[in-house]
Amino acid sequence: MEDRIGIAGYDGKGTGARGRQRGKAHNGAVNGTTWTDDGRYLISVGHDERMRVFDMITRANTLANFGPSLKNTHTTPLFPLLAPSHLSPMGRDVVYYPNPRDIVSFDLHTGRLLSRLRIVTPQSSVAAESGSRNLTPRTTSLAWRAHHVEMYSAHADGVIRCWQPRSREDIEVDNEEKEESGNADAEIERKRKREELDQIVRDLTKKRTTYS
Fold first, then answer.
1. Same domain, yes or no, for 84 and 43?
2. pLDDT over 90 (residue 125)
């Protein structure tokens, strides 16, 4: 897991190369592995809450650092998901990692966090309907729908969620809602200022009462 050279040799031409049949990948149990489409890279995840990317030509760890966002405490299998190569920009691979309460995506080779998908649970959840308090929305698996820009996530509460990219219509609706909300806030602020001004006028024009 610390080897950034692999078996290719120190000069890249085989000089000083060393053989290796096995190596330690994680400080803890490994409970998930997946390959890139071209088979060039192998991704592993483990109970040390790390995700490692291995170059399978040189067998070296690319040392991509995905930061402290990863959670992996359950003994069940946990598999990261690679976005289809035709949906990713040229020269970039995007990997999705199933955290218990969100799904995070990273640039596979730099480790840069790209997005965070929040798991929203309605009040009338499956857990409440079943009468059980132990069911949680913990993400258990991820899958792409073939030939569509859709990702599906399965959860321990029995729900399967569908994720799609935001359309132009979605963005326009969000902008309209923000504009309406801004107008409402501005109206409330104007009303508050009018009431304050009216109170000042009343205080200034109120007749003074004296008692003899």
1. yes
2. no
